[in-house]
Amino acid sequence: MAVIHDVMPAFELLQPNSTDEAQSILARYGSDAWVLAGGLDSFDWLKDRIRKPRVVVDLSGVDELRGIRVNSDAVEIGAMTTLTEVAQHPVFREKYGVLAEAASMVASPQIRNQGTIGGNVSQDTRCWYYRAGWPCYRAGGNICYADTPEGRNREHAILGADRCVAVNPSDTAPALIVLDAKFVIRSQKGERVVDAEDYFIDPNIDITRLHVLQPGELLAAVRIPSTWAGARFYFEKIRDRNVWDFPLLNVASAMFVSNDRIDHTRIAVNAAAARPLRLKNVETAIRGMPPDAATGAMAGKLAVQGAVPLQFNAYKIPLMRNLVKRAIGGVEEATWT
Amino acid sequence: MPDAKNSSAAPAAQVFGAGRKLIGKDYQTPDLYAKVTGRAKYAEDYHAPGMLFCKLLLSPVPHGRVKHLDVREALAMPGVKAILMPDDLPPPADTLTDNGTVIKANPKGERALTMEPVYQGEPVLALAAVDELTAADAIEKIQIEFEPLPFVLDPLETLRPDGPNARLDGNFWVKPPAAGKQTPAPHLGELKWTEADFATAKDGQLPMGKTPDQWSYGDLDSGFSRAALVLDETFVTPDTSHQTLETRTAMAYWQNGKVYMHTGTQSTAQTVPAIARWLNIDPSKVVLISEYTGGGFGSKVTAGVSLIIPALLAKKTGTPVMMRISREEETFIGRARPSLMGRMKVGFASDGRILALDMFVLSNNGPYDAQGDAGTSGRIVSLLYQPEAMRWRGATILTNTPPRSAQSSPGGLQGITIIEPIIAKAARQLGLDQVAIRRINCPEGKAPFSGPVDGTRPHATSSFLKQALDRGAEQFRWKERVVRTPKRIGSKVRGVGVSLSCFVGGTIGFDGLLVIRPNGRVTFQSGIGNLGTESVIDVHRAGAEVLGVSWDKCDVVWGNTENNLPFTCVSGGSQTTHAMTRAAHATAMDARKKLQEIASKTLGGTPEEYEVADERVYRKGDGRGITFAEAAQRAIQLGGIYDGHECSPELHKLTKASVAALAGQGLVAAAKDTYPRDGFTFSYVASFAEVEVDVETGQYSLVDFLAYADVGSVIHPRALGGQVLGRSVLGMGHALGQKWVYDPHYGAMLSTRFYQNKPPTILDVPVNMQWGALDIPDPETPVGARGIGEPPVGGGCASILNALSDALGDEIFRRAPVNADTILTSFEAGRPMQHPLMAYI
Prior knowledge:
The structure holds two protein chains of two kinds. Chain A is of the alpha+beta class. Chain A has helices at residues 19-29, 42-47, 83-88, 90-95, 97-104, 109-114, 117-122, 128-131, 172-178, 196-199, 280-286, 293-303, 316-329, and strands spanning 12-14, 33-36, 55-58, 68-70, 74-78, 182-187, 190-195, 218-225, 232-238, 249-258, 261-270, 277-278.
């Protein structure tokens, strides 16, 4: 059968107005349904005819999935809230700057106006073999094309690879992990809440998915507890272009410091592995140490222990080492006269 | 939003076009509102009643032969109307040139469809249906299998003794010598190097085996022996798609035996013969409608051969057919710049003067027609740096990758990008200022270039690049920037770079055509494509200036070949502003002469006693005269040469046909540019860049940029600024990240989407980029103007590379683009870690 791209196949478009309605549709159609949020990930799959769902469930009309609700002990972000709204909301800018900054660095202004927080954390990998429809492990086959002697893998994993070397491309995911966010998942069976870091999965759990959502389930909201409000934050994203680019690597950290000593901290990186990595060994190692360049340098070295480069991505090891260093010790701002 | 006013503004002090009313002045082009309001209609915006849509079946393999094909299920689908196979295409037609030479068609050249695809993504067949969804569903129902054939992506791999060839008959084109009035078609040959050729190249240096082409002048050995410094460096430039925002979408229908074609093209008048040749029909049977084109950059010089697909399907079905080309399809069939692998041995005197230059280039040509990039790279380098002695050797090698074509500064960008880092390195080693070393090698006046032709080296019409370099350095505050300290704060390092840049800037010998109408208005017939440069309108200001007519009394007709257009240059090679201001000038002079003659016939006296100005022709002294309106009415009464019933025998047949069609509508003026020219026309740019690099992440940003142009007389400052900076950005993409990535095992492109092949965005360039222009007229053209589209491109790329090596040292990169991976690994290791010769990483 010949292959053709760039023409969306026919599907049934269902546009529920409520979460209940959405859930009943998802329960009815199970794995035949495709959940559509902002569409930035979905439309690529659909236009290339690599995914041909029978039903597309467009959540844009479900108002209860939108908006930022500030409570006394948490902030809840509806999964359909746009990245622009997250980046610009005062509560994030003032108390959870790491998330505002991460959201503001996603892709381009146009994409942030359309893309949602739920979509950003639930998007699929951008491995160019997998996205082009190659029958790899992740697509149900038995080869990883990126991890071959001639495979092109500049943007692939240095950690945690298991058959597949694709990476998670989300910018907001590591920020949500350091904020200890809770992901609220709903289905007709009820609601379950998972920690941000447990939302994402390795290939050895399920090589075909990056997250825990099962057919029939919906990511409804992301809750940010007040635990890390006002902490010392750091976020940095390295990319080839200043706009409209996925991360080569990103880093997020949150830290409470007293008497110039790190009380407690959380640190996470993404685009290094198939899931955003919380660096617990680093967090433990630096507790009680001063948040300076020396601690950062030590932490950076610790962070990349066990990293295995592929042919074209060895740069990610010094990059991750340096980003972790900066996430702890900061980076000197250069002002030129 | 970046400050658009700043980003294209000339320095406030610059006033162009001294003593002139229209030339050198800003104005609003008549297509502006349509473009900014969306009213402008591009090919895809046209719809015809009952129009069908077609989709393409693209080859999944880099080289193969269709061994099994079953389309029955597809054709049986409701709504599917027709299928077009390679056998349905007309045979390739020969070209008959205007001087009577027959250029034989290449039987192995590119066609719109093929049963033996030679690159992944090449169209095999097309199918028309009532809508695109039906067409796509039907394509998926086609059973097709390919017999795999040998393929190669990398020019060096095919040059190995046992390397595969891209084509079954060879890996390069052999051009037989012309035989009388006939230019034979090229044939395929096989070029292989020896193991010894490869073995002698060490540490990533480009091997140098035998090449089919070479030239030289001067005494290389003497130059090298006298040199205070000799550098021998390898550098590789990227393959880059043209990335026009409008893809090569085309819509066609047939009416009264003529094909009506809507598509984007760089060159309206000249696309008609191309369509006629591809369809093997007479040019009089072709009507092209192309009022707006969403970018060309060399990929649509005369549109693209794929446009015959909807034309043939429209003929087959008796129904209009639209072929919308998607972004991925455009990446495959939409043309690209060939990568050049270059090696240069350069001998410098202690003052920086280049005494000897030995240049060697390999061009990655794709599978079809040989592009001129390799040869042009040598010519441009010889002109721009004026080496005392030089040898150029080159080979253009076929690979199973998408077809290449000229892309803004074809060969110029690559040559400049290969030599500039070497000059920067030499300056550092010799302790010279970067501007000074370029100044001492800079072309001046009627500078020679290339190897000898019939014993003599050709020369440029003029070059004032030294002044542009000086003015640019002053405006960029070069001297202040190079001594500024510190260079490094924390992990951030700053660097500044300068580059020379040039490209061809003009041809001669084309026609102009205008009508002074009985209502007193002047209509300029423009055969130029509306490709975004504004030359389609701008050049006619030169005619209006000669006639002394105010611009609001002028109209420009463009974009539809039924509207009687003159024989016009193609808009490629930055020739339009030069060629067509000359034609506009000649035509206005013809109009002027006719006005004077009509006045003398009407009011007495000799024609020489009459002046033309303010939309009148009047007697010097007493001011008695007639208006343009009256002169146009008289022209119609007089007939003959005055109203277009007769015309100059010098005109091209296309212009003659247009004159005949306009005859009787007013005073018809038409002329061929026969002005003399001594030398070949080039334009020049001095480019300056400053970068800030974070050595802990390898990420860098371009913080400042200036381009100062020597383009002869400035015609339209705002459009010129748009070209100088816009085309600089096109060049910057080659430094900042634009590239192709291929899986070499499968011969498949991985970077088919914008986010993967990474053209530069508006946020990758500084908000306040600056430009300037000398505004010194070229002495070899009556209006003084030269072309500008391509000359800035090489400098956009090379100035960034030079700024990077100023910041980081010489041991970081040996290929472009340069990104975080290159910088980080090399800076850590203290030597270039990225292999320069590995293709498509």
